[in-house]
Amino acid sequence: MSMYRPRRVVAALALAGLCVTAASCRKPTHVYFTSHGNKINTLQRCPLDSPRLESVVEDTGPQFGGLAVSSRWGRILWASNRKDWAIFATSFDGGYSAGLVPGEPHEPVGSFAVDEMYGELYYAVSMATQERRHQIRRINFKERKVHTVVDMEPRVAVSGLALDVPRDRMYWFAVRVDASAPLDDRVAFHRRSWPCSLWRADLSGGHRTCLIPESAGLKGAVRIALDTKSQQLYWTKRSPDSIQCVSLAEPGCPVRQVWPPKDRPAAKPQVKCPFGIGVDRHRGRVYWADVTAYHIAWAAFDGSAAGVLVKVPPQRGTEPYPTCLGVLHSAWGPWPSLTVSGP
Question: Residues of 118-134 as b/e, b for ≥16 C-beta within 10 angstroms?
């Protein structure tokens, strides 16, 4: 595969104004999230104007992987540890689902990010090799061709993935993984002390640059979300549990803690075990799924306010904890049909 895709650069330059403002001008309407439990695994959503829980997919199968929302292409993409399909695409209301990426033995998928312009999904995958190799791959919604974009170093995992298509950039955290850790994203619950670094590359995987090195002391990054207009990158973090961000436009990429405020570490809602994260520029908020607090929470970009959007109650005698999260902006429509094959 070519490491350089000039069509992206040309299109991004021609459509930069449209693409940068399109997502920010369209008002976010729902937060989608997965819940994982001992007896049930679900995909749910919560309307932002009148918060309440709505079921989308009642049984997603065991999953600790990724979730992405494609407002333009009209689908929710989610990972599963089922043997037949590793990644599914479903309609916004869950009325139709289809397999997108076939399952591979011992190759669980992780973080997701959608290229809305070209209709492609970028996702991280862990391979059960002796070196514990991890990759970032890309699949086109229509052609269903899979390409390897980034080959990680041995025992270095991808933690969080975000795209800036108009600028032909992608971002991720690289986490040094203990050899005994599970392959899938359960490592998020054990990575409090694992060192990580923030990386940038173009959408073909070339021109890789380390923005925040391991020597900066950053640890425990889990998931990331990018506000392309302000160039603020937000992430959920363990060690300590918090929501942080970095300004990609500022020299040195200074890190700022969003919630809880450093001068008020006991401020509520407390961050107990944050996982998935999403950005809402219209309301000036960042949302995150808190695994052990059993709720979806939010905080203002500047950390001036925060609250609980919706609680996730027990279902069928189990307590499914929310994990991955994505934000749906107002529907583009009409959407292309799902051309993938169902299981």
Answer: bbbbbbbbbeeeeebbb
